Amino acid sequence: MLLIVEGTTSMQLVEFLAPHFHFVSDPTAWVALLTLIVLEVVLGIDNLIFISILTNKLPEAQRARARRLGISAALIMRLILLATISIIVQLTAPVFTAFGHGFSWRDLILIAGGLFLVWKATKEIHHTVDPQDHQDSMVGGTLQMSLAGAIFQILLLDLVFSIDSIITAVGMTDEIVIMYVAVIVAVSVMMLAATPLANFIARNPSIVMLALGFLLMIGMTLIADGMGYHVPKGYIYAAMGFSALVEGLNMLARHRRKQGSGGGH
């Protein structure tokens, strides 16, 4: 590609790229692009919550680096998967049948990812509810882990969410360039939002439990989806939004009570 670019004039370069960007004059393609970007950003929320909770377990000096590495790995993984899109599409073909349901590789990956999320969220909830049981492995009240361990776990979940994301993109449009643009924009938004979200979760302990509850629900949804019981994503995000709204009202009430208590003295 570099040789082609260096050996051509700007007009030849435009002619070379034109077939890949013919959608720019098609209004329906722009609608598909915007819809896919929004969808990819929403799907990325699950991954972002997991990354935020996991990186907050690291020493403070390593957290930002772990987030950057994890999200960069997510971008690279999704771009590679898009390059092998013909193989990814075949992952939806059944490989065996059990309990009256034909299981595909995608189903098995979703079930494995869901089980991992349920295990991880349950373990973190137990650590949060009963930290005394884990005092030996606790530092400053927060369970510590290595940077390599955090990146490995992020990559595992990145793979699950990336495959689901790419299959969603395939269902939205046939234009590979639109898929690439949507994935790059969505992951860029994740990169910008990762640190503020992680800091917000770290400053508000009650949010940690809410986020872990979200991960537990997302894990169960992935398992159900892999078993052939599709739960509309709208229901999941509506439940998450309602829970976040209630917790926001609780935080506001606590803040007001604290202000009132301070004013009384």
Could you provide a short overview of the structure?
The protein has one domain.
Descriptive overview:
This protein has 265 residues and is mainly alpha-helical. It has one domain (33-244). It has 10 helices and 4 strands. The chain has helices at residues 2-6, 10-17, 27-55, 60-83, 85-90, 105-129, 147-172, 176-203, 205-226, 233-264, and strands at residues 94-98, 101-104, 138-139, 142-143. The strands form 2 sheets. The protein has a two-stranded antiparallel sheet with strand order 1-2. Strands 3-4 form a two-stranded antiparallel sheet. A hairpin with a 2-residue loop joins strand 1 and strand 2 (101-104). Helix 3 crosses helix 9 (205-226) and helix 6 (105-129) crosses helix 7 (147-172). It is globular, with a radius of gyration of 22 Å. The relative contact order is 0.15.
Number of helices: 10
Distance between the termini: 71 Å
How are the strands ordered across the major sheet?
Answer: 1-2
Rg measurement, Å = 22 Å
Shape: globular
Low-confidence stretches: 1-8, 16-20, 134-143
Label this structure with key terms.
single chain, 265 residues, mainly alpha, two-stranded antiparallel sheet, 5% strand, disordered N terminus
SSE diagram, text form:
Blueprint: H1 2-6, H2 10-17, H3 27-55, H4 60-83, H5 85-90, E1 94-98, E2 101-104, H6 105-129, E3 138-139, E4 142-143, H7 147-172, H8 176-203, H9 205-226, H10 233-264
Antiparallel strand pairs: 1-2, 3-4
Helix pairs in contact: 3-7, 3-8, 3-9, 4-7, 4-8, 6-7, 6-9, 8-9, 9-10
